[in-house]
Design brief:
The complex is a heterodimer of chains A (349) and B (314). Chain A is 72% helix and 2% strand. Chain A is globular. Chain A is built from 14 helices and 2 strands; from the N terminus they run E-H-H-H-H-H-H-H-H-H-H-H-H-H-H-E. Chain A is mainly α and 349 residues long. Helix content of chain B is 71%, strand content 2%. Chain B is built from 13 helices and 2 strands. Chain B has a two-stranded antiparallel ribbon with strand order 1-2. With 314 residues, chain B is an all-alpha fold. The chains are: A mainly alpha (349), B mainly alpha (314).
């Protein structure tokens, strides 16, 4: 058995790929649900109704999708240039804590029109800065950035924990380690009344469209792709590889930082060390499911958010561990990898 | 100053160094074996988590401790086989496949654990490996309690490091592994099947990672809880670079690393209240990054690392 590269890839196949991958992942997850002794189709029905069955659940799902769109974009942008930024989790937290600190101490009292955009920018810049060290290590010493960005996640979360236990600790929180609350004027407006859904969703979707535009219509977009496909060839063709990677890293880290900023301003209003249930890591899956396409990221984030919110509801009513959501999401990453492979190769005997 | 000397002179510190080093030694050896054959295995964090879980569950359900370790090895091997299919047969990105394996293995471990062990106020426990005093040596003053009163897996890990060093540098099988990692095409011309070697190295390496994880639940602690691996897998990946892909240096690196970890734990109690505890907890991760930066230039990377091998294609 050997594999042969396909000459043509039909657009229908490319669109069907993630759907096939998700179906495969759901089938395997179904076996696991059956092993837990629950009726599989009822369980899937429960996931759907818990995620979209009511106004409340639908807005919760959309709220959950918001940071996933941004962390998914962060991964997609970087991976396209073969920059393996696995540090979105840490960049998310640093964005969140920077915003909390700035809003409470620096910009407090400023009008929302000024304060919110400034804070979002601060969150994004904080995320960018976190990639400087790994990028420098890669360009200067060719240290694999996967490990450095991953290790920095632990460092940053401990750093945030130190801040909210120390200088940024909210004195009115009955001793709980949480940051001071952001200024009231900094809270993101609601998108829909009587729900937790905030305008962060709209911002995330617009950002996805902007990223799509940049990648398809600008020189930088082409360069970043070339840097990923064939670095040596790109250099030969005159692509400034170092500069391109720095820009890619800034965008990637900035998006993850923005995700943290939006989450703290939109949902809780303060930072704790459980602000993110792994949005940074789930973003990797979202990006892969979308096959690194920025618009696809929006849909992949919706699917992932649906799994998490839906599995919570199903878990409560049927006694299946909620971890089934993480399992399904991880499985869809793996099956997506295989599915993409078979759009590029066919089997030859 | 006296406090520091007291810490360094206590046998407890040095006993802890060996204990903390054990999962790092096993994980690093596993990652190293796989990388010497040309396959980066970022599944390590998840594989260690799964090994920790499945080994513990086996013992909790009545298996003896050695069977628990064996089950953890098999569990690791299964995920290694998955990674091998994706990266060796299909030639997919080793980075992405490894991350996928990590996400899957760890979430699957949590899921299985929750199925097998319903939620309880206090986590259920098992009777873990007990320290074995090596006759004669353990009676030595200071050295006895420090180095010769460890649990069996710790001795096993050290033996494995020596065995792997011998295997890689002195046996035909080791030569086949190294050739496959340096130049699979040349290896094939020598009658070696690079695919088979890579499969073997990834699966065996992952089995070691599984055992490394199981050490946490079967020897260091006596229960399983999510996130207990806490980045040890990623630290192992850094340690492989630190060790320049050599098993004997991996042993040294893991011990050095464990020394800093054990030392900071004790320093915490001395400096508690003066310095936030989080600063101490950061040390292992920062050290790993520093180790990477310092050693990356000097280390000689296996030339075919991360390059898929396809017969006929160059």
């Amino acid at each position: 058995m050997r594999f042969e590269r396909r000459e043509h890839r039909s657009p229908a196949l490319v669109i069907a790929t993630p759907l096939i991958a998700i179906a495969a992942a759901m089938a395997i997850a179904g076996v696991l649900i059956a092993l837990a002794g629950a009726p599989v189709f009822t369980a899937y029905g429960k996931i759907l109704t818990s995620a979209f069955g009511s106004r409340l659940s639908a807005t919760e799902t959309l709220m959950r999708a918001t940071p996933l769109i941004l962390t998914g974009l962060a991964a997609a942008v970087a991976f396209r240039a073969r920059l393996w930024n696995i540090g979105a989790e840490g960049q998310f937290y640093i964005g969140a804590i920077a915003v909390a600190a700035a809003s409470a101490h620096l910009l407090s009292g400023l009008t929302p029109i000024l304060q919110i955009p400034l804070l979002l920018a601060i969150g994004a810049v904080a995320g960018m800065v976190m990639l400087l060290l790994p990028l420098w290590l890669r360009l200067r010493f060719s240290v694999d950035e996967v490990v450095t960005t991953l290790l920095l996640n632990f460092v940053i979360i401990l750093f945030v924990s130190m801040l909210i236990d120390g200088v940024l600790k909210d004195p009115t929180a009955f001793g709980w380690p949480q940051s001071e609350a952001v200024d009231k004027a900094a809270r993101l407006p609601k998108l829909i009344d009587r729900s937790r859904l905030h305008i962060g969703l709209a911002i995330a979707v617009v950002v996805a469209l902007v990223v799509h535009f940049v990648q398809t219509r600008t020189v930088f977009g082409v360069q970043s792709r070339a840097a990923g496909l064939n670095p040596a060839g790109a250099v030969f063709a005159g692509v400034p590889l170092g500069r391109t990677l720095v820009l890619v890293a800034m965008i990637s880290g900035g998006l993850a930082g923005l995700a943290g900023a939006i989450e703290v301003l939109g949902v809780k209003g303060y930072v704790t060390t459980d602000l993110s249930p792994g949005y940074g890591y789930s973003g990797i899956v979202v990006a892969m499911l979308a096959n690194l396409n920025p618009v696809g990221v929006v849909f992949a984030a919706l699917f992932t958010a649906m799994m998490f919110v839906g599995a919570d509801g199903m878990s409560r009513s049927m006694g299946i561990p909620t971890y089934i959501a993480d399992v399904t999401v991880a499985l869809s990453l793996l099956s997506m990898l295989v599915a993409v492979f078979f759009t590029q190769y066919r089997i030859r005997r | 100053m006296n406090a520091l000397i007291d810490i360094l002179a206590s046998a407890g510190l040095w006993a802890a160094v060996l204990r903390i080093a054990t999962p790092l030694i096993l994980g690093t050896l596993g990652a190293l074996l796989s990388e010497r054959a040309g396959v980066l295995n970022l599944g390590i964090e998840g594989i260690m988590t799964f090994g920790a879980m499945i080994g513990w569950v086996a013992v909790y359900n009545g298996a003896d401790l050695w069977t628990g370790l064996l089950v953890a090895a098999l569990g690791g091997a299964v995920f290694g086989a998955l990674h091998a299919v994706l990266t060796v047969t299909l030639g997919l990105s080793q980075h992405v496949s490894g991350l996928g394996v990590t996400l899957f293995a760890s979430s699957f471990a949590y899921y299985v654990f929750r199925l097998m062990v319903p939620v309880a106020g206090t986590p259920p426990t098992i009777e873990p490996f007990q320290p074995i005093a090596i006759p004669g040596l353990s009676d030595l003053p200071f050295f006895g309690p420090a180095f010769f009163t460890q649990t069996a897996p710790t001795y096993l890990a050290i033996l494995l490091a020596v065995a792997l060093a011998y295997l890689l540098s002195r046996t035909p099988l080791g030569l086949a592994v190294r050739m496959t990692g340096e130049n699979p095409h040349a290896a094939e011309a020598q009658g070696i099947n690079p695919m088979a070697v890579r499969y073997g190295a990834v699966i065996a390496g992952s089995a070691l990672m599984g055992v490394g994880g199981a050490f946490l639940t079967l020897s260091a602690f006596n229960s399983f809880f999510p996130t207990m691996v806490q980045g040890r897998g990623w630290i192992c990946i850094a340690l492989v670079v630190f060790a320049s892909w050599r098993p004997e240096r991996a042993l040294f690196g893991a011990l050095l690393f464990a020394f800093f970890d054990a030392f900071q734990l004790r320093l915490q109690t001395v400096l508690s209240g003066v310095v936030p505890y989080q600063l101490f907890l950061m040390i292992p991760y920062i050290l790993s990054i520093v180790a990477l930066a310092v050693m990356a230039r000097r280390a000689r990377v296996p030339q075919a690392l991360m390059q898929p091998y396809r017969r006929g294609e160059r």
